[in-house]
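U., I forgot to send this yesterday:
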Amino acid sequence: MGTTTPPRTLAEALRARGDESLAGLLRARPDLLNPVPNDITQLATRAGTRASVVRALEHLDRFALQTAEALAVAPDPAPYGTLLSLLTGDGLDDGEQRDDAGAAVTAALPGALATLREQALVWGEDDRLRLVRTARELLAPSPQHPSPTGLGPTVAEATAGMSPGRLQEILAATGLSATHDPVSAVAALSSLFTDRTRMAELLDTAPVEALSILDRLVWGPPYGEVTPNPTPPVKWLRDRGLLLPVSTRTVVLPREAALHLRAGRAHRVPEPVPPAVAAAAERDPQAVDRAAAGQAFTALATVEELLKLWNGGGPAILRAGGLSVRELKRTANALDVTEPIAAFWIELAYGAGLLASDGETDERYAPTPASDEWLDLPAEDHWTHLATAWLAATRTPGLVGGQDAKGRALSALGPELDRSAAPDVRRRVLALFAELPPGTAPDAETLLRRLRWERPLRGGPAASATGQGPAPTEGTDLRSRLALWTLNEAELLGITGRGALSAQARALLAEGEKAAAARLAPLLPEPLDHVLLQADLTAVAPGPLERPLADMLSVLADVESKGGATVYRFTPGSVRRALDAGQAATDLHAFLAAHSRTPVPQPLSYLIDDVARRHGHLRIGAAAAYVRCDDEAVLNEILADRRSTGLRLRRLAPTVLASQADPGSLLEALRDMGYAPAAESAEGDVLITRAGARRTPPRTPPVPVPEGPPVPDDTLLGAAVRAIRAGDTAATAVRKEPADAPSSNAPSGALPRTTPAETLATVQAAAMTGSTVWIGYVNADGAASQRVIAPVRVEGGFVTAYDHTADEVRTYPLHRITGVAELAEDGKG
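Result:
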């Protein structure tokens, strides 16, 4: 194709592109690479499929989409001037504000058109712009899916089934000359509606009520219902073709008439410039960083508390998957947060690989082995791990409590929570935050307006025009909902502080986890190695505790209150819990003395000694279950207690009671009665209960659900472009017709056929001259193909050649080559 010949098809337009331009197309539309097209023709065909075009339209910004919509209602092909006029108007109603808008459109249109061309949605030179047929079908008007522009069909489309007599009546009513040719009649009516002067004269004679009807239809939808006996204004419009029939009860305002009433504009308000994100408040950047760090510390404490809560085995998994409403509420109460926030923390820990199913028969959630590794990291690394997992997660906690498309409730950790757009929305929201000066909190409404401009079809109202919008139960603007959830979750996680992006979050987005951890570390409080014991059996931790101290204290005491300082309370139950975990009374006294900045109060020492003195006095083991005690009086006391009736105890020996209850139930029942029994093994040894020993098998974090094919890297793009070029060379090469042996060439599309002697002679000659030839080849599986090769060496019954189709050097057995033909245009090596 010569350089001055305009492309006749999309394939020709793509073939004329450079390698960088083709790589840009594949980068913008990675779905075209799966699998790699054989040649340019297949690439063009794939780029025009409905699914691929819809995906490409969904990634356009507002103005690029408006440009495509304008082309969908323009003549095909359309010159650049016509497209510009549809976006700016014909200039006859311009005021100063319209002039400014027209200048902005004029400046932005080349960029929008370049985007559409890069994505192969538009092709052709500026004097013959063509929107790909599938996009035109998706964006063009129809009664089922009105055009996003609000325009109806053209006069020619609306009058396609109209009788010649009716056309003559319309011409007569509008004062046009009668013609017996329907095509000429339609052309005359179209010419009238596109003539500004004559159309204005016609409308000057219209009744006021008729003009009101046109005002209601002009910006869409252009369809209206009429009664069998229409009112005079409707009859006036219908008689003059300003309302054309679609059915017996439906009429439509033709496109040409609507464009006249709109002063030539396809859109009421073109939006060539993205709306700016306004600032809601200006804050001290250091105060923002400190607030975000404080919230980050709270986030870490909350996740650690959740892991401790489910340490010995968490809640059971529903049969349909996920967490029950009751268990979510119980977890929320334990964490002292609302249920939606509890769902966020649970999903965050799950997405970070810290929680998972244990895979047992009675399946439950529990911490993973990775959670122990996470807890051993410094606090700043804790946070970067969680923040990175949140950024990449497609699971959407904001959906918990809602319903799916079938009306079923969506539960935390359950299926159907993945939304592939979530990571893109999160990163885009934070990128808009980062564009503002440090310490600036953006206005949420302007931020949402900007997101809707950038992706108007991704769940927005316009998505219904393509018939590809989200399910009705998902709402009309999922992207905006994801953005609002992002704002709340970023504040909870400490990404933002007081509504503004923190410096550590900026570092995470721009430089990575190490830089973010370095920014956060100085802002986090140093863990303490001591507490303050008080005489009322409480201990006050004035800040975060070192992990060994915190772990031991969580076993020995119960958390009574949290805040700037954490208050722990010692009770008989908590002390017994420490003794059950294998600690002795002397160990507890030494531990408290070593870690208290105040003397150990006497009441606390007495509490520990008193519980330790009674601990293990009773022993419980498995018969069904039994109780043994060296003190017969204690057993007599238990038998006499009415509360033991349900345990069905009976004496086997002076120091042994048997029960039909299992050992665990018996143990808890006697503890509820005020005793301090200890469980024992079959050998009579006291069983030590290790706190929080339950872990799942090694688990990997849930894999985010990708939003379409991944964007290929430059290496893959380069290889794909070379392969497509090579295949195109093979597919479009022209074989030379030999004058002396016309039968040696196969018909078009078939394998070339030559004798073995002719094949050998031709490839030997090509190897000597470095020329390129066309061969037919049948592989070991019997699959036939055509290839363009440049032979390098011919010996031993094999030909070694550079295969242009595969873009590599290959060796072919001569006996598998069906024939060979020279190319019409010799391709030298």
